[in-house]
Amino acid sequence: MGTLTLPLENTHSENTLEDYIHLQSLIHNLHLRCDAQNIQLFHLEIDDQIQLELDEHQSIELLIFNTEHKLQPELLSQNLTSGQQGLFFNNASNTRAQLAQQTSSSLQLKRQLAQYGIDEDDLRNTLTLAQYGTHLFRATATLNILVMNTGVDMDITQQHCIVEIPITILKAQPLKHYLPDPLAKPVQEILIPRASARTYNVKAGQWIQIIDLSGKQCSDFLAFDEQALNNGQELGLDAAATRTILGHSMPSPGLHSKFYGADSTVLAEIVQDTVGRHDMFLNACSPKFYNDSGYFGHISCSENFNQVLKPYGIASRSTWPAINFFYNTFAEPCGEIRMAEPWSKPGDYVLLRAKRDLLCASSACPDDIDPSNGWVPTDIFVRIYDEFENFPRSQHYRLDPEEQPRMTQSSGFFNRIKSLTSKISEYHGYWIANEYDGWGAKAEYLACRERVAMIDLSALRKFEITGPDAEAFMQYALTRNIRKLAVGEIAYSASCLDTGGMVDDGTIFRMGENNFRWVCGDEYSGTWLKQLAHQFGYKVSIRNSSPHIDNVAIQGPNSRALLQQLIWTPEHQPTIEKLAWFHFTLAKLGGPEGIPLMVSRTGYTGELGYEVWCHPDHAQSVWDAIWQAGQQYEIAPLGFDALDMLRIEAGLIFAQHEFSAETNPYEAGIGFTVAMKTKEENFMGKEAMQKQAPESRQKLMGLILEGNETAQHGDPIYVGRFPVGVVTSASNSPLLCKQIALCRLSPPYTAIGTEIEVGQLDGLKKRLKAKVVSLPFYDPERTRVRS
After folding, report:
1. Are 643 and 455 in contact (CB under 8 A)?
2. Could you identify which of 61, 105, 185, 238 might form a hypothetical disulfide with 262, taking C-beta atoms 3.0 to 4.6 angstroms apart as the criterion?
3. Mean per-residue pLDDT, 341-370
4. 689 vs 696: CA distance, rounded Å
5. What is the pLDDT averaged over residues 431-446?
6. How far apart are CA 648 and CA 441, in angstroms?
7. CATH assignment of 462-545, given 3.90.770.10, 3.30.70.1400, 2.30.42.10, 3.90.1150.10?
8. pTM for this one?
9. pLDDT tens per residue, range 324-334
10. Which CATH number describes the domain made up of 698-787?
């Protein structure tokens, strides 16, 4: 856990407005977690409390140390409630079981234990907590608690996996600052007090971590080529060069991946960001800004920069162009610049890497006259790490606004993927390939339509639903009639709010009579299911198995022939040849002693296809076997750009395009998933959808456009002057040699052959003519996918 600093001092009874605002922003609770099959150290001061949320069928192991790293379990006092079991001594059975596996999780655990200085004698004194529910402990003295959320890997045929443990620290003395643990051993640490600026030198290859200690505090950043400065030349960050080289015609909020100097060479690149909202189109604050606002003589970032840069012979400026970290400004459609409080929370940071020897300057912005720093400026902290360190590229995200950021993941297939392409992007918390070097989206598309292609779909989220009420719960949570599913069968379904709006779509696998696996697009779906089960009292366990299951899709007319050569199935499971559409089989790779797999006849392309599911440790071996066997069929890797072309042709929907929380399944084009007539039980969204007159619903339709100009998601659709619908997805169709689109239309304009126009620019100045067609564009009877 991060270092916690600066507890609240005794406050005067007559607080100023500034004191009051500080009180509102104090850190009372820290929302943290211990990830699955990991260990994490947390620091507690006297009377701090730590709350652990244990999942059903899971236990965790604890080690309690005093400040001298001596085991002293009596320093932690448990607040027991009625019927609650306490801690008991254990020989670290979970941790030892994970270590004994000789897998990637065991190797990682060994490194973590060594990092924290844990040896065999320590493990003999492990305390275990094994009861489901919320557990609260209090520190009777300053201590460190090591939480070991450990256990064996989950086999693909199993459903009881280790899941993350939510942890909350309730501070006895609230904090003004939160300084996270260093990412590695720092070579420099610089505190930038509020309303000031500091300079620091960074060597090429070194890493720069800029940390917001209290949250909602902006920090402007400057960088100069040090060698050029030594030669008498000011060569600093240049916004115009950066935007031009990266293909951004207009400034916008966010961060560029790289920042260039005026000579069009890279000065620094962004590696990690835990916020996702920064200002990239304004200068640092200046005296003019404050003078124009009536605050004459107010200190500014530009003046602070002038003072700290003066010793280096850098000429003063009336205002400095800068990277504005954590600054939350945005441009209205009319071009007006507006601002709001920053999104950054205590401990949030940006990590950069210097590409040349740099002189850097960072500020802690002094603006206290508007929301730009949450009204009260605070401190910024900078850490510099050695060039020999290695930090993965990451765009963090949060499921809950209060939780610690989550780092972008790499699937087990990713090492193979990145060896084939440099065109990588982040998607739903995973790194994915957009397209592959030497192929390209169209060639990958054609391989899938004509031969066979493979794509990593591990970014899909997987949840294990088990327990005596599992069937009844899924019958309520999903729109499909789950009771009709046989063991080994799969159904495509929606999950809805009580308004009828969609939370997610996905496939439900019936693993047993009371065992299901829900595969969907959004990790929040698991949170939603847990909330629903708790609200209505279902006896069901919902566990996130996404870290334990990776999947690769094998799609195309030769997919069956390819997999038949590789997949062995036992007598009680269907073979690949006999596997029916929307069914799965449990299998092995190559023979009865091979890698455990689950193979499903599913996909997202409209072609005959399968998905192969395995543990991440086995992913590279699975990829290699499929890739090698696929050479005789001219197999191609498939990126998400080609997948988008395939799924639009097949009329398949995508989150935040064809559906959202404001769109019900009928309006999203998947009304067939709503068992309104065949399911007697009530289900989420049923009543709202029943009250909606079918004739009034907007309808998902297809468009074929005239000409070669492409429609865009969000383009309005017109008949005459007024809009009648919206484009949800669009693509060029290599099959039809035309531009096509999915759209949502008002009922009077859904007849096949209706002529409409797609509005661009302001909707009036440019129109693309199109005709309404039925879906899907490709294989209307879906004979290929059923073949």
Report:
1. yes
2. 238
3. 95
4. 11
5. 97
6. 14
7. 3.30.70.1400
8. 0.91
9. 999 988 777 77
10. 2.40.30.110
